Amino acid sequence: MFQKELKTFIALIGTNSNEQQWGNILLNLMGPIGRNIHNTFTFDSPNDKENINILIQKFDEYYIFSGKKKLPLENVYEYINELELMIKEKNITNGEELIRKKILTEINKHQFTNTANNLLPTFIFSSDFNKLTLKEIAFIWKLYTDSDICTRCDGIHSPEKCSALGKQCSKCNNWNHFSRKCPTNYINNCDYCGGNHIYKKCPAFNEICTKCQKKNHFKWKCQSIQILQCRFCGLSHAANRSLCSAKYNICSNCNIMGHVPSRCNKRFLANRLQNVS
Ligand SMILES: [Zn+2]
Ligand SMILES: [Zn+2]
Ligand SMILES: [Zn+2]
Ligand SMILES: [Zn+2]
Ligand SMILES: [Zn+2]
Ligand SMILES: [Zn+2]
Domain CCHC-type, which positions (predicted)? Predict the structure, then answer.
């Protein structure tokens, strides 16, 4: 790809001194089409606008995802599904990492953190974002973008302008909601994902929990008991022997499998014998 060649070229000249200048040269070389694409980018800092490394990353991302961005009413899960399909079509291997980076350019970190803190009180964006699965990210993103969406009609409007007002639901015969939003079809505060959704449409379905490695729930709904200082590995993990990192470890102290040397019983025995002699 053109950008890659340019990067090699810059590396060959061996200059890191002026990333700004190289950014300008890149934009000039790309001509009006490149500059039009450049106009659609958003930057964390005005200084990034002409930074060659940031531009190359942005143009790469633009190429991979064809400049797609989530639309205000677009469903987050469907949007991420589409990004995954785009990655698949282009046979890209580090797809998940690219999708995470792309999501990072689109979410509001402040709103995301506030929402995440309701589920995970200790959540800190810089250290915990990358520990979330894509589905968990989507769930939190959806939670704060959906707060404006009307629970009766799926639209965004001022309170009195609901298009479901005066409509009778064909499912429960009650008034003022569409049948697709009928409360009889809805699960509130789901035990597996923590959200509200149509019965049998849990976003945590088939998801593997990063805490206990069991299926069908998000980590903030994990019921597994945590071992704080495992007597085999010394670390904290869910109470499941198969999650213990020392399970197949051969102890260098006693040559028995299943624990780390610092948790070896024989060491104390050896020490005691030494003290006696
Ligand atoms: Zn409405
Ligand atoms: Zn109803
Ligand atoms: Zn659920
Ligand atoms: Zn779990
Ligand atoms: Zn362990
Ligand atoms: Zn041992």
Answer: 168-184, 189-204, 208-224, 250-266
Phi then psi for residue 21, to 5 deg, are -60, -45
Which ligand lies nearest to the CA atom of residue 202 in the structure?
3
Distance 146 CA to ligand 1 centre (A): 13
Encode 48-108 in three state secondary structure.
Answer: HHHCHHHHHHHHHHHHHHCCCCCCCCCCHHHHHHHHHHHHHHCCCCCHHHHHHHHHHHHCC
The residue assigned the tokens 């677009």 is 74
Q: Ligand 6: distance of its center to the CA of 229 in Å?
A: 17
Taking residue 230's Cβ as centre, other Cβ atoms within 10 Å add up to 20
Rg, C-alpha atoms of the chain: 26
Which listed ligand is nearest to 270 at the C-alpha? 6
d(CA 45, CA 68): 22
Say whether 212 sits in a helix, a strand or coil: coil
Q: Residue 143 in contact with residue 116, Cβ under 8 Å?
A: no
ipTM computed for the complex: 0.76
Distance 246 CA to ligand 6 centre (A): 11
The torsion angles phi and psi of 186, rounded to 5 degrees, stand at -110, 145
Domain ranges of the chain: 2-65, 226-276
Q: What's residue 2's pLDDT?
A: 59
Give the number of whichever ligand sits closest to the CA of residue 257: 6
Helix H or strand E segment including 133: none
Give the model's pLDDT for residue 256: 93
Residues in the chain with pLDDT values less than 50: 277
